[in-house]
Write a structure and sequence with these properties.
heterotetramer, A: Butyryl-Coa Dehydrogenase, subunit A, domain 1, seven-stranded mixed β-sheet, 12 helices, 9 strands, C: Butyryl-Coa Dehydrogenase, subunit A, domain 1, Butyryl-CoA Dehydrogenase, subunit A, domain 3, four-stranded antiparallel β-sheet, 10 strands
Chain lengths: 393, 393, 402, 402
Amino acid sequence: MTSFSADERQLLDESLQNFLSEKYGFERWQQRSGPSGDQYGSNEWRQFADLGWLGVAIPEEFGGTGGGLTELAIVMAAAGRHMVLEGLLGTVVLGAGAIELAGTQAQKGDLLPKIAAGELRLAFCHSEQDAGYARDYVTTIARPVDGGYALEGRKAFTLGAQAADLLVVSARVGAADGPVGLFLVPRETDGVSLNIAPALDARLGAEVRLSARVPGSTLLGRADVDRTASIDHLIDRAAIAVCAEACGAMAEATQNTIEYLKVREQFGQPLAKFQVLQHRLVDMSLACEEARAIVHAALEALDVGAASAQRTVWQAKVQTAQSARFVGTQSLQLHGGIGMTDELKAGHLYKRLCVCEAMFGDADWYLKKLSQTLPEHIRARTQDDRMKPPEVA
Amino acid sequence: MTSFSADERQLLDESLQNFLSEKYGFERWQQRSGPSGDQYGSNEWRQFADLGWLGVAIPEEFGGTGGGLTELAIVMAAAGRHMVLEGLLGTVVLGAGAIELAGTQAQKGDLLPKIAAGELRLAFCHSEQDAGYARDYVTTIARPVDGGYALEGRKAFTLGAQAADLLVVSARVGAADGPVGLFLVPRETDGVSLNIAPALDARLGAEVRLSARVPGSTLLGRADVDRTASIDHLIDRAAIAVCAEACGAMAEATQNTIEYLKVREQFGQPLAKFQVLQHRLVDMSLACEEARAIVHAALEALDVGAASAQRTVWQAKVQTAQSARFVGTQSLQLHGGIGMTDELKAGHLYKRLCVCEAMFGDADWYLKKLSQTLPEHIRARTQDDRMKPPEVA
Amino acid sequence: MFIRSVGSDNRLNAFREEVRQFCREKIPAEIRRKQEKSQHLDKAEYDAWLKLLGEKGWLTGKWPKEYGGLGWEPEQFLVFEEELGKAGAPPLINFGINLAGPVIFTFGNDEQKKKYLADIAKNNTWWCQGYSEPGAGSDLASLKSRAVRDGDHYVVNGQKTWTSWAHWADMIFVLVRTDATVKKQAGISFLLIDMNTPGITVRPIIGITRHHHLNEVFFDNVRVPVENRIGEENQGWTYAKFLLANERLHSLSFAKFEAYLAKIRKALDVVKDGGRPLSEDPTYRRKLAELDVRMATAKALMADQLAAARTTGSPPMMGAAALKLRGTELQQSILQMGLEVLGRNGPVYQDLALEQNWDGEFVGPDVSAGLIYEHLYRRAATIYSGSNEVQRNIIAKGALGL
Amino acid sequence: MFIRSVGSDNRLNAFREEVRQFCREKIPAEIRRKQEKSQHLDKAEYDAWLKLLGEKGWLTGKWPKEYGGLGWEPEQFLVFEEELGKAGAPPLINFGINLAGPVIFTFGNDEQKKKYLADIAKNNTWWCQGYSEPGAGSDLASLKSRAVRDGDHYVVNGQKTWTSWAHWADMIFVLVRTDATVKKQAGISFLLIDMNTPGITVRPIIGITRHHHLNEVFFDNVRVPVENRIGEENQGWTYAKFLLANERLHSLSFAKFEAYLAKIRKALDVVKDGGRPLSEDPTYRRKLAELDVRMATAKALMADQLAAARTTGSPPMMGAAALKLRGTELQQSILQMGLEVLGRNGPVYQDLALEQNWDGEFVGPDVSAGLIYEHLYRRAATIYSGSNEVQRNIIAKGALGL
């Protein structure tokens, strides 16, 4: 993929901010965000497509503008700031990403243009109840049957699954130790049932049970290729996209809090005049900057395919989770009682930040992965490190 | 052991505070605390004995006043507040404790009165280089030889060892898998060599190497009794005594800091008027209170022999370590540059608090022990806990 | 240091057993079932249980005997509350028994004592608290609701907010401004108002939990008999501070914390990563150990307070503010861990599962919705009863003299 | 967000290799040996090395070419410093090259540039910093040292403190009050003073490290030529602030942090618990992972700053204060971990092992004394260059407009 120039990125960001501030206001958001609301707005989705956001990372030959993950992250950050309800992640990052990584030329040619055009919504149904954050735990099985596969299994709660046209389902092909394949299963397939539930942040999702027959054409790519590594890479991309969203949400939460404290008076002066609260706001701002900086480093590392990319993603997810928790909790705390109601953005941003913190692995999980890859590093370092090339962090 | 009444404890505390404030001032402390100073002051030690502090926990029949660990802790807290240099811990808590737990009646009758009278100073040389905080790691060996034992081994750095009359040395009797015995080895024995070094807090101590013959009478109690459990108990007592000392040092550090901030002016007003620093002082005070409260709970649990005592000691050591670190670092921070010199108590208290944090196990070490004993607890709780007696925390 | 004994004696064991047995026998099965699922109780369910406690006199066990209480020491109340928590009993509702009641028997006149105390003790009346206002959060004394004397009545106008259970309450105690010309603390009075008085409107507030138990209460020319005023006119701040100290003390309920931990432990066995339960992961065992230490420390602080109050009769240095600070911080840490554990299960929050008659299917462990509800609701714990920032101001000024 | 690229290019690889090779060949063996043992260097040893760097022009690589520098971008300096750190070279001494020099070439006159810059670049003069005073810590502008004009001289009286290397320095730059009748920032001048001038007394301060490198400097009727004043009289605060921003930027040395971590890693292999090295304990691996994340974040923040400065020419929002805050917090966390690891070994601190000619025997790992020295010394990192509390005030006011 090619990346946009700084000017093109700037234009993309401005189009996002302009549209979302004008057309995606908080009152309307409140109406739409309830369990019976139109969360996955068809109008909005079409407009996102028209503005070129959905195809921003889809290659030009397939109807997109051929940007990289950094461009997607600009979209996600704006989505975070404005609390976009639609499932960008499932369709644009994971869904399109899965097709690009695992699909045949024909599948790409068929599906990617539809995604860019806003005609196809996807949800990535990979994780299973007992998997937790583990990425290689797949017990769903796809047994070859006449003309297709019999899918049997259960996929954990996935945001946006209730509204997706196609579910991207991972399953072991043939047997419990078979290669992991990715299937595009229409949500409306017989034998696919959803237990729909709201998430912490009121967005809907569903657990998915599969006991269904699907045609062979639903498999992405060839049947004998194991997709575990691709899934790992996809989830890295999704994790950093979620970090970008969190960066947007954190920046918004911090800015809201600063503005509120400047006008809210107690004990005879604006709260923003109290030194303790000033320092808290400084630390919130710093937390935002830190997450933004390392997420940016991870995005560029992924976009150029740096050897350190995965490690940087893990580091970024840890830092973002920690920043998000601090900013989210302090934003509520400093708003006081009013922040505890559903009437302000603060609470909604807090809940979304909690979701971002958890999605695709929390700080503990990535710290464990980082710590497990340290020992070699330790050994390497205690020998003569003057002989070695410098580490790229 | 019997415990003192609240009034008796009050009197003990007053005698400590009065003597130490008057006779143990900071200027003289500075002279004595250097590597060539008279750290283990003979005059002071005699006066401690005369005031009854050294025998406070020694049974009356052996020349003491028969108090418990709580009374010792009152002494240790005062020692912490006034940065007493003398090795109370090695002699009064560990040395006397070892004799009481493992000694024969004759040994008790011979040695305990001397300790109470200030005529005998001890150091507890149990830990070894590779033991870390582990309490059951003993490789020093005492091989029976004609009329006694040949001690071979090496004991880790022990505060006060350089000035002790007797070293309490643990060793496996007979062979590498023999029972652990405790030997009272005169420091001046041939084949006992010391590598003397200063600790972080400038107090001296030494690594001890043993390749020495000692008479059979140096063994405390019988040769066939394994003292591992006694040592474990002794170290629990020492750990909580160190916590008590830390409580005294923390209280002093916090009070000093409050007083300093009330007089030190910057930006046109006393530092104590800045809200951020006020809250910091509040958190320091709270940290002191928390450590004091749980140490108190642990002392009483040990004194009454409660089943929960050991667990409470571990909890107290964790809390004290955390409180000590916060109070110590913040005391330095709030003093600013002047606290970074050897001319104020702040730095010395900081360093002593670092030592207290580490001695006999730091927070990580005890948290690991606590977490390893949790699983049964979890299981027990997830069954019907209405059927079980309440936990004592 | 370490001078007064803090050890708890065993004389309360029999009482503990009595409470335990009472709970075992008397908590209605339906309530127990709902409590286990963390489902919200309705008023009738609360009443059914609280009246049982009222009959035993336990609801107001801490009150002095002369006002119908049992004169419990604080330790006894702690045992009582702990056992209630362990037995899965509904929580006690503070407003009558711990807030209004003590104000009335301490500062009220004989008429008022006669009129209100017995009904509180028997749970015949529900009270709610008219303290906070939209413009006056932690700076409570800057309240704007006003009461103007008109013959033998006050005419009250204004608005209160964050009023728990106002929609169920029979009575409300409010702080109103009766003199706007003096220093803000000096012109406040303390009134008891019947919620059925014309001019009172209750409007629900939906919390970030998506649940309703908080309200706004509007007063539009509400006529309140002068005899409903506690103590002197314009002296209300004195009574208000007394009540706030009680409120702070009661914000620390270890029984509740134990209940959270029990649910987290259950979740640790059920939630998995890569097929292995989280309870096998040292990271979580370490977190439990850290919470264990903090819980033990908070209990020790409480024991210390009680011992000090017992022997000296005066509250110890740091007082209720310290317990409020550390208690609420601990509470949020426990509930943070809850969210972390459940996060592996997808960020689901089935809030409707907390309503009765829900017949949906759980995604993940059944303790999930209840823990997340508490997580969200208790983000307010460091805000309500005076924010923790204000508590630190109080300690800085009061205890440290800064 | 994410608009400007922060990626570092590879054009510095050749330079990196050049520095690496230079260090390999030129660092005297004795210095390398002492650095590995963390032993203090004497002035002659510093000089020997710094003059070598001066000959290459690297000492002042960042200076503009017109003043004898090489016009390095900040990235190039970072590479330079990183390689020096990895090679075990002695640290650079800031006072001339990063503090006095830039003030002189930015605000000094041609005479001053001619007189001082070349000697700084070649390490012919050692400078020290006369900023702090006993009564003026983080509130620097409240300084009391005064300079009174007497013909073509100033007569300086007063006291400076926390003066690193004053006992070795040839020159000192000082802030003095030249007008006491105006607002405190408005009456300050910036003077360059020869340390050999009569009336200057240097008195050592022994730090909590038990080592001497800080001093008090007393001025007793010290006569300083007026030509030694930088810029305008009473405008010294402007130059002082410029210098402080440089100081803050240079407080963050990743090379130093890497060196600490290398020593800690070494200690983890040597220090044991129950016979097993600590490097096998997940607790410590987790701590390393946490530090790894913070280090990566701090580096990303730095890269971000550099990218912003490169493209917009103006410093980014949070600026040097943010890096100072997080950098020093990270530094202390790393050194805290060092102390934790070494704690298992007994709380030994063999400070004399840091002096040359020490022939004692180590208790525990040989990195111990050096790490503990740094632990103690760097407790000051959150105090010096403006305490971290003051940095937060700066950000609150400057960046957030509070």
